[in-house]
């Protein structure tokens, strides 16, 4: 778990799911990571709950003060990135985790349905749905290297659109092939920056 611990990220839901998951999977660990020197949240009760959980469930790890290199090593060792956010539209943790080969479990709302496969999304606020998705990741693990690649194409496409005043609406997650064609044409015709 690599999100902030503020209420809009719903870390209490994450903690509930983690506790249930660890109960049924005694060989797994659940890691919460932060680069901050101490756990922080806009709700002190969240920190109290996470510390309490880690004290009675040692496989619920709180890794504090991680450098970027340590964080990337954590992702490299991780199998699944779980997200419980109630407000994300763009998730850097999604891009970082999928770059390192993690499988993913995200809520089925906001922009996530555009970029997360349906079988890796759970009903928001529904622990059973989240646990079912985690179970599917264990039984049928996958990597999602296409997600950061498509996001990078989208970044290039945004520059091309701005440079060419292109007015057609595109969804990079659904129109990836078309976007690549436009970019290739733009590079050949010097429209692309």
Q: Major β-sheet, in short?
A: 3 strands, parallel
Residue fraction in strands: 5-15%
The percent of residues in helical segments reads 40-55%
Write out the strand line-up for the largest beta sheet, numbering strands in chain order: 3-4-5
Q: Unreliable runs, pLDDT <50, ≥5 residues?
A: none
Report the structural category: mainly alpha
Distance between the termini: 37 Å
Q: What does the radius of gyration come to?
A: 19 Å
DSSP E strands, number: 5
Output the helix-strand order: HEHEHEHEHEHHH
- Provide a count of the helices: 8
Overall spatial form: elongated
The averaged pLDDT comes out at 90
List the helices and strands and how they pair.
Blueprint: H1 11-24, E1 30-33, H2 44-56, E2 60-63, H3 68-77, E3 80-82, H4 92-99, E4 103-107, H5 112-115, E5 121-122, H6 127-139, H7 146-164, H8 176-188
Parallel strand pairs: 1-2, 3-4, 4-5
């Amino acid at each position: 778990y690599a999100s902030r611990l503020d209420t809009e990220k719903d870390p209490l839901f994450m903690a509930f799911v983690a506790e249930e998951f660890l109960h049924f999977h005694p060989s797994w660990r659940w890691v919460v990571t932060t680069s901050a020197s101490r756990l922080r949240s806009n709700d002190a009760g969240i920190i109290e709950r996470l510390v309490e959980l880690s004290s009675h469930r040692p496989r619920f790890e709180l890794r504090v003060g991680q450098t970027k290199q340590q964080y990337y090593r954590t992702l490299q060792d991780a199998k699944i990135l779980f997200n419980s956010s109630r407000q994300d539209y763009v998730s850097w943790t999604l891009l970082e985790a999928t770059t390192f080969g993690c499988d993913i479990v995200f809520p089925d709302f906001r922009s996530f349905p555009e970029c997360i496969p349906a079988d890796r999304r759970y009903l928001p606020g529904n622990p059973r749905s989240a646990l079912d998705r985690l179970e599917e990741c264990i039984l049928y693990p996958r990597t999602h290297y296409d997600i950061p690649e498509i996001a990078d194409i989208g970044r290039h496409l945004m520059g091309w659109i701005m440079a060419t005043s292109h007015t057609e609406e595109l969804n990079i997650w659904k129109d990836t092939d078309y976007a690549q064609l436009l970019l290739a044409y733009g590079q050949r015709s010097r429209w692309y920056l």
